[in-house]
Amino acid sequence: MFGQYNDLANARVFITGGGSGIGAALVRAFVAQGAQVAFVDIQADAAARLNADLQAEFSRQAYFQPCDIRDIAALQRCIENACAEMDGVDVLINNAASDNRHSLASLTPEQWDDSLNINLRPHLFAAQAVAALMASQGRGSIINIGSNSALLGLTGYPAYVAAKSAILGLSKALARELGPNGIRVNSLIPGWVMTERQKQLWATPDAVAQCLDQQALKACIEEQDIAEAALFLASQASRMLTGQALVVDGGRV
């Protein structure tokens, strides 16, 4: 990691979708800072591999619970369990998402609901689950992972873009509501991050070249780039930053 934040040592961090991709980079980054990390993911096998890697590199693991975040009651139970395990929570990162492609013509009401149930609804109810505890501590940082697709109006997944657009408004509303209790809420907006999923499904040479042509910085965005920004938003280094959208997309927007 490029950044080191002393106040994140022993910080208590909860991350959704932490088993792979950006989420796994987030888990690893906070563990590297010395934080206590708990995460949920629907893929238990990926989580087990991540924890094995953490054990080998740092001689400790993150607290993992399997969870389908569409089940809000289950998600809030996992948050409650994690808070008990870590004796509180300082940072919530709503990261889990699904960017499956779909067209306007074929989208069904059920698919629309499922997209929002993954990409938006858990953000609010995870924040609800930690708000009272963070308020009792007089501090907290909630980071909602969005997407620059909402700022660019990208085509090919309108329900996903709608959910990611709503995250911007949700973060601003929660920042106003929770700010008096010392809780900061920000959106972290990645560009096209070259995760294994993206490479396998959509990152063709032509598509990557087109994206780089639109970026000011002519390099692909890696998971670590997003993790570095999340560390900053979690740390007291950004203590007066709330209700904002931090865009990490190489200058594409």
From TrEMBL:
It comes from the Bacteria. Gene3D superfamilies: NAD(P)-binding Rossmann-like Domain. SUPFAM superfamilies: NAD(P)-binding Rossmann-fold domains. Coiled coil: none annotated. Residues 11-192 form the Ketoreductase domain. InterPro entries: KR_dom, NAD(P)-bd_dom_sf, Sc_DH/Rdtase_CS, SDR_fam. GO terms for molecular function: oxidoreductase activity. PANTHER family: OXIDOREDUCTASE, SHORT-CHAIN DEHYDROGENASE/REDUCTASE FAMILY (AFU_ORTHOLOGUE AFUA_5G02870), SHORT-CHAIN DEHYDROGENASE_REDUCTASE FAMILY PROTEIN. Belongs to the short-chain dehydrogenases/reductases (SDR) family. This is 3-oxoacyl-ACP reductase. It comes from Bowmanella pacifica.
